[in-house]
Please model this.
Amino acid sequence: MAVKCVTFDFGGVIAEEGFREGMRTLALRFGLDPGETIKMAFRLVFEVRFVEGVCSEKDFWGMFRERAGVDADDATLREMVLSRFVVRPWMLELAKSLKERGYIVAMLTDQAGWLKELDLETPFLHLFDPVINSWDTGKTKKDPTAFTDLAAAVGLDPQEILFVDDNEGNIERAASMGLKTILFRDRESFEEEIRGAVTRYA
Model:
């Protein structure tokens, strides 16, 4: 089937992965192991269902401080993370170009309520419709039905959707539900793959 919708993840695709890079910076500042700190933080956001909007940000940072053994207030911790979600201008240009060519351009992401806050700094949400965020839906991409929910939201067969993410697990789950996929690794390889995909299936 021809691709009619291109759907992007946010952190690590549309923008730099601010959560991971924020945790790396935090670990170095407090003398922690960066790799272990990043793993712990990612486990925690899903364990307490922070990205599903179940756990408040205040509670999340409290639990993070306890597990990491750091002494930093909420404002400092969130600034370390949010400031590193740097939106990639070339990705926004790509999204705009795809829309102009008639594709549905959507976003499927596991983010906290930070997404709209980040949009105030560098507007990007207007280029994606729909924007499906786990914070609003209560369902992350760890649940394969998130991808069939996406298909229903855009009114397409899963095979008509091309999904881009930097997480191998998410890519595997999307593919298992019938979506075409691209694992984002770097700009050069991605641009080659997206050109091939939209040309091949258009």
User: Anything to note?
Assistant: The chain is about 50% helix and 10% strand. The chain has two domains: 5-16+86-201, 18-82.
